[in-house]
Structures are given as C-alpha cells and as structure tokens.
Amino acid sequence: QAKREKPENIPDLEKLAQEKFLEMESKNSDSDLQRNEKYMYFKDQLKEMKKQYNGNETIEQIDEDIAVTRSQMNFICPITQMTMKRPVRNKVCGHIYEEDAILEMIQTQKQKKKKVRCPKMGCSHVDVKGSDLVPDEALKRVIDSQNKQ
C-alpha cells in the first residue's frame, strides 16, 4: 500500500502509535498496579532490602508485612488448599488454581456430563473449561522465589 499511495496520503504511523500509547497509558490506574504480580514482587524485594539496611520496624513496615501476607494467600490453590506449583489462570473469571487439580476436576465432571463451577468461593462462573486455562508464569516465578527463601 505504501508503494501505491502518494507519500502525502500515507498516515503518520509514529504519531498514531504515540496517540494509541497515550490513550492506553491514561486507562492505567494505581489499583491496576496493586494487582500486578510483578509490581508486588518488586515492591516486596525493595522492602526486604530496606529491612536489611534499616533493621528496625516502623508502623509502615508492619502494614507492608500485612499486605505481603495477604498476597501470599494467593499462592494457595482453592481446590487443594496447598501452595501451588504450576498455577493456571482462568481467562473467564481470572481465578487461579493448581493445574493438575483443576484439570482432574474438569475430567471427573466431564465423565458425569456435568459442568465445572469455579472452585473459588463466591465466584459465579459455572462452566470452567480446560481451554479457558492459561499458565500464570509471573505467579509461578513469585512462588518459586518465595520457596527458595
């Protein structure tokens, strides 16, 4: 198309890309960051370094420890109630499970010709399928690094 068109008719791709980037950037909020595993992991690492440097706990540090404890609860599979080794995220409702546990659940219910309800308490998603599940590599890395400590 670029060869056929006159140069003045070709859109300014750099300008269009910049506009799209600014549009997407304006949709991001601080609450999105608070749910991002990579951001939380980075924040945890900074806290650890700060703790080693200062050595004394402040009120802020205690609050941060509570937040870390809450985020560690996300490592527990709602099916097995154990720390996940291979977490998969449900694309439909966003909940995370241990891969083997949810696949076994889907297989068992399929044999009974029944649908699988999301095992996360309070979730209204009633038809979990294997094709809805994607590996959550970011969470896996966080869990692995937590296990090394």
TrEMBL record:
Pfam families: zf-Nse (PF11789). One of its GO terms (molecular function) is ubiquitin-protein transferase activity. GO terms for biological process: double-strand break repair via homologous recombination; protein sumoylation; protein ubiquitination. Residues 62-148 form the SP-RING-type domain. One of its GO terms (cellular component) is nucleus. Its main location: nucleus. This is E3 SUMO-protein ligase NSE2. It comes from Atrichornis clamosus. The gene is Nsmce2.
